[in-house]
From TrEMBL:
It is a multi-pass membrane protein. This is FtsX-like permease family protein. One of its GO terms (cellular component) is plasma membrane. It comes from the Bacteria. It comes from Telmatocola sphagniphila. Residues 17-234 form the MacB-like periplasmic core domain. It is found in: Cell membrane. The keyword Repressor does not apply. Pfam families: FtsX, MacB_PCD. Residues 269-380 form the ABC3 transporter permease C-terminal domain. The chain crosses the membrane at residues 16-42, 264-286, 307-334, 346-370. The keyword Mitochondrion does not apply. Keywords: Cell membrane, Membrane, Transmembrane, Transmembrane helix, Transport.
């Protein structure tokens, strides 16, 4: 019966390909859009994830996410270090400032401005620097006015130019020299990321009474991170959260304060609805045109259960083919755009493939149910009409 079901399915090539197209389009759209959405949300936490040495982030109690940090007092670092269970705590500056291209942009125009992200790491330990340097030496960051830029930021500021150390910029009327190029997780807005020592960052940043934005903390071995966060909060009145919790707080802010999840959700829902509509309608029309064949099979004594099995076989055959094509096209997109700087960090996750598989299964089942209902109430005598 399986062979006969597949023979009937492929007999009408137009409808057969139409059903596959509907399932392919739905699975491609759902997998692509959900993967883009998750990758985009992951970008909002890139700065947090790049500080791999830290277990806990300490900040002002009113800070809601990474880009909205209220400054701390310089004395707060000693207060946090005095908490039992803290192995070390260091300063971290994170701010968004303007940088002027002292050597001109791609058109050769000097004085062009770009908004960049400035990260000031601890002067002595350099905790917070990305671990992978493409060019340069971390020790050179000790030099005056030295900065390290990420690869995407370098291409953003000097497009088309090969990586070269010694590029000069101005930040807050202060000279900055690129002494290294590193790999870093791309940020949400694809701005260039500059790393420098904390003392240098205070010169590059616009003057304020307080400039310390975060304290990053390493817990002693065996100390529970959540318990240490509570002790820090009780003793310093500052907000302390684990690295993972801070990532989720940042993501939650973007989910609740922007229209990003609604827009992506609408697109994914449209993909599902269009898949159901195209596959369901085409599969139903295919069944209607084959009613006489089903009626003949029932007249020959084939049970309803066997006929349901034939329809489900047809449904899951086109579902598997369409799902495979959809996942393949989505994978080709992410593989093909992996080298585009603006799309760096966008991936298709295996969990998304499982979600898409579940959605395609629902589409196939819904499309099959319409056809099954028609065939179950079919009179075998229809074959003689």
């Amino acid at each position: 019966m399986i062979w006969l079901a597949l023979k009937m399915l492929t007999g009408d090539r137009a409808k057969y390909l139409g059903i596959i197209f509907g399932v392919t389009f739905a699975s491609l759209l759902m997998a692509h859009q959900i993967s883009i959405f998750i990758s985009l949300m992951a970008r909002t936490t890139s700065v947090i994830r790049d500080v791999r040495e830290a277990d806990i982030w300490v900040m002002d109690p009113n800070t809601r996410y990474i880009d909205e940090a209220l400054p701390l007092a310089d004395t707060d670092v000693d207060r946090v270090r005095s908490v039992a269970g803290v192995e070390w705590a260091v300063r971290l500056f994170k701010g968004s400032i303007r940088a002027r291209l002292a050597q001109g942009n791609e058109q050769g125009v000097k004085g062009d401005f770009r908004q960049v992200i400035l990260i000031g790491v601890d002067d002595n330990s350099l905790i917070g620097l990305p671990r992978t340097l493409v060019m340069g030496d971390i020790a050179d960051l000790k030099k005056p006015d030295a900065v390290i830029v990420d690869t995407i930021g370098y291409n953003y500021l000097w497009p088309g130019q090969p990586f070269r150390l010694g590029q000069v910029l101005e930040m807050n009327d202060c000279r900055a020299v690129v002494v290294g190029i590193c790999e870093a997780n791309p940020p949400f807005l694809s701005n260039a990321i500059f790393y420098t020592r904390y003392s240098n960052a205070l010169n590059f940043a616009p003057p304020e009474r307080r400039l310390l934005t975060f304290l990053v903390v390493k817990a002693q071995e065996g100390v529970n991170h959540n318990d240490l966060c509570q002790r820090i909060q009780q003793q310093t009145r500052l907000k302390a959260v684990t690295q993972e919790a801070f990532c989720w707080e940042t993501i939650q802010f973007y989910l609740s304060s922007t229209g990003i999840p609604v827009n992506f959700g609408i697109t994914v829902m449209l993909g599902f609805v269009v898949g159901v509509a195209i596959a369901g309608q085409t599969f139903y029309l295919f069944t209607l045109e084959n009613l006489k064949q089903f009626g003949a099979l029932k007249a020959m004594g084939l049970s309803n259960l066997r006929i349901i099995g034939m329809i489900l076989t047809q449904g899951f055959t086109v579902g598997c083919i369409g799902y495979g094509l959809g996942m393949g096209l989505a994978a080709i997109f992410f593989e093909g755009t992996g080298g585009v700087p603006a799309l760096k960090g966008f991936h298709m996750y295996w969990e998304i493939m499982l979600i898409a598989a579940g959605a395609v299964t629902v589409i196939v089942v819904l499309a099959s149910l319409l056809s099954i209902r028609k065939v179950l109430f079919l009179e075998p005598a229809v074959v003689f009409r």
